[in-house]
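For reproducibility, we list the full input for the manganese (II) ion complex.
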Amino acid sequence: MRSFDEVMAGVQRAAIAGHVRPDGDCVGSCMGLAAYLRANYQVKVDVFLDPLPDSLEFLVEGKEINPKTDETVRYDIFFAVDCADKKRIAADSRLIEHAAKVINIDHHISNPLYGDINVVEAESSSACEVLYGLMDAEKINRETAICLYTGMAHDTGIFQYSCVSPLTMSRAGHLLSFGFDFSQLIMSSFYEKSLSHQKLLGIALMKSRILPDGLGIWSYVTLADMEAVASSSMEADGIVEELRNTKGIDYSVFLYELEPGTYKVSFRSKGKVNVSQVAVAFGGGGHVRASGCTFVGKTPDEIIAQITEQIAGQIHD
Ligand SMILES: [Mn+2]
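The corresponding predicted structure, in tokenized form, follows.
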């Protein structure tokens, strides 16, 4: 598939869904694609998204999302965007099973190509950038541009990570030409944090430890930690990057308790350790420098012991 024209002929009803625990790229790609399809095709578009962090609400303001649908609805086309794992698509799985065609648009190297059509570009910075490549640049409107720019900026750490290419910048440059307040957009959606998040970050930094290999740093927060500062797991994003910023280390591991005894684990690497492989070994996925997985029924110490062993195997390979 090279363009949306190829798949949209005759389509009357389309659905779009992102992944659970949506981030900027997920929301930007869902809302950007919806705006593009509505503007350029005669199609009814339903968007399914999990609850968003407040900082991304501006992308859905005034838009209808999560329409009440009968689970027997048969969509002509179902777009799963930014979803490396079919089980993590934030929509009723029956809607996906009943859809005439599933289009999987993503940039995660671990994506198993579960769609009828798969556009998975692991070298792309973001799902938003993959979408841009499938769109006719002349038919992009301001609303789409704001959504795609937000997603590209978020998944690249504001155009800083190694996934940024000259093409990423020229595409982002075109999106900027729509004249929105990109400084304010990045400040409010990326940098500004609630006081409770800042306090949770403080706890995580205070508890951080260097791993025995001297390359890694890790930390964790429990439900009790979150409760103590009136925070929640919704505010755990960004902490693993702060850990990675520690001078002299190569990778960071951050655990946060999602529900009693269940820990979500995030990895970031500066390059020596392939954290995609580590996450995949524990049933997760992601990218070479950013990945994640989930552990059930283990303590933070047990989890980090298993992870350390897995990483040691990789370093010595
Ligand atoms: Mn993404």
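The domain at 195-316 is CATH 3.10.310.30 (Diaminopimelate Epimerase; Chain A, domain 1). The pocket of manganese (II) ion is lined by residues 25, 82, 107, 126-127, 155 (CB under 6 Å). Both points were considered when choosing residues for closer inspection.
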